[in-house]
Amino acid sequence: MSKAVSDRGLSFAAQKVSQIDVPDKVLYWECFARIVDARGVVHSASAFAPYLESSMASFDLDERMLDLILSHLARDPNLVLGCNISAANLAAPHHWKQICRQIDRHSELAPRLVLEITETYPLVAEGVGRLSTVRSLGCRVAIDNFGAGMATPARLLTVPADIIKIDASLVRNVRTSRKGQSSLHYLVGFASCVAPIIVAEGIETKEHLDAARDSGATHVQGFLFGKPASLSTQ
């Protein structure tokens, strides 16, 4: 798998993040890595990401994906794309500097780039500080999988973020308090103290959409609005 990342076997599928009451109004497209192996079999990120993380090849994957996404942005001035970056890359000085160089070389594209910080690694103080640098380059920052990642509420309050994404598991397993408010309502309320845009992930049914709308989420993402696919088929 790591050889496929470093060669030419890497591509991506994209899924839209939409305004909650106007699904056709796309905030951006989140990009999900795909790898084609030597036999021509396509593997999604969920299949190979754990292996890459254990072998430290996820550093290379993030950098290669960023190159691909920047290339797509350069070809289409109407695109806004999201690139997943591991919190581990924020903490590793060499990899962090490489990501900054990649973005800085294409500074005119930065306003159409959203960096989604994934938390398979703790978001440590150094990483939090470096997010301010990302934003100074012109990118927006999204914190992915809030509620299921490693960021504590106290840590999240220190994060300079533009977008908070509520994890799909918390959208699908809503509980109601004695006061009649849903658990999702409280999560969205807290996240709104950190960022102006709150995305409810994993929207697959009308019930999920209703729960997201009632909670105060501003945007949604999920199979109800389309599965990840090649941008050419969108």
Automatic annotation (TrEMBL):
<dbReference type="Pfam" id="PF00563">
    <property type="entry name" value="EAL"/>
</dbReference>
<dbReference type="InterPro" id="IPR001633">
    <property type="entry name" value="EAL_dom"/>
</dbReference>
<feature type="domain" description="EAL">
    <location>
        <begin position="1"/>
        <end position="234"/>
    </location>
</feature>
<protein>
    <submittedName>
        <fullName>EAL domain-containing protein (Putative c-di-GMP-specific phosphodiesterase class I)</fullName>
    </submittedName>
</protein>
<dbReference type="InterPro" id="IPR050706">
    <property type="entry name" value="Cyclic-di-GMP_PDE-like"/>
</dbReference>
<dbReference type="GO" id="GO:0071111">
    <property type="term" value="F:cyclic-guanylate-specific phosphodiesterase activity"/>
</dbReference>
<dbReference type="InterPro" id="IPR035919">
    <property type="entry name" value="EAL_sf"/>
</dbReference>
